[in-house]
Amino acid sequence: MQPEEATSKSQFDLRDSTQIGETEPIFFYLAPRKLVLLSILSFGVYDLWWFFKNWLFANEKLGLKLSPGLRAIFPVIWNLPLFNLIRKVSQENGVTGRFPTVSIFVLWLCLQIICRFCDGPAFLFFVALCALPLWAVQKHINNLNKAVHPNAVPNSAFTAGNWVMIVLGAMCWISYIVGIAAPHH
Fold first, then answer.
1. In the Cβ-directed half-sphere of 162, how many Cα atoms lie within 13 Å?
2. How far apart are CA 183 and CA 14, in angstroms?
3. Which string of b and e fits 125-164 if b means at least 16 CB within 10 Å?
4. How far, CA to CA in Å, does 86 sit from each of 6, 108, 125?
5. CA–CA distance from 96 to each of 61, 71, 138 (Å)?
6. Is 54 exposed, middle or buried (0-12, 13-18, 19+ CB in 10 A)?
7. pLDDT by residue (tens digit) across 97-155?
């Protein structure tokens, strides 16, 4: 038996793959500003969709046999494995750059916990901050998708469902702010 050649492909090296099309992203290819806006306005509910879509893409594009729905609704358990998978796929496809998965996960987790114990303006501040770790992950995902498929375009358009979330979220934010500002007797 001869040893493997040094040029053999890694498990997730998809640069020359026929497994995915020329413009198909590996993970959820989303404009970071769209992620942040929808995450903040939905008080983090959109994050569950984002987790689901990334696990779904991992299943479809990487041939994994996972349950995206279960992984999305238990992000405390499954975010770090998702972030590590994104880093591994990135490294195997030549995408470099700092992507400290544990630090991003710990920051995300701490912000989620702090958010649950805050009221008033502090709550709104931490709801907004909760989007930042996901913004960093999304930037890395976009670099990976661009490296593997330069012709792929991130999803930056707002769908009807996005607009419903924006309107409802804005109404909730306004309602919350009015409730904070209203004098209490």
1. 13
2. 59
3. ebbbbbbebbebbbebbbebbbbbbeebebeeeeeeebee
4. 23, 16, 28
5. 20, 26, 15
6. buried
7. 889 999 999 999 999 999 999 988 999 999 999 999 999 999 999 999 999 888 888 99
Q: Which two tokens stand for residue 122?
A: 């502090």
For residues 59 and 53, is the Cβ–Cβ distance under 8 A?
Answer: no
- CA angle, corner 134, sides to 26 and 30, nearest 5? 45
Query: Measured between alpha carbons, how far apart are the two ends of the chain, in Å?
Result: 83
d(CA 51, CA 47): 6
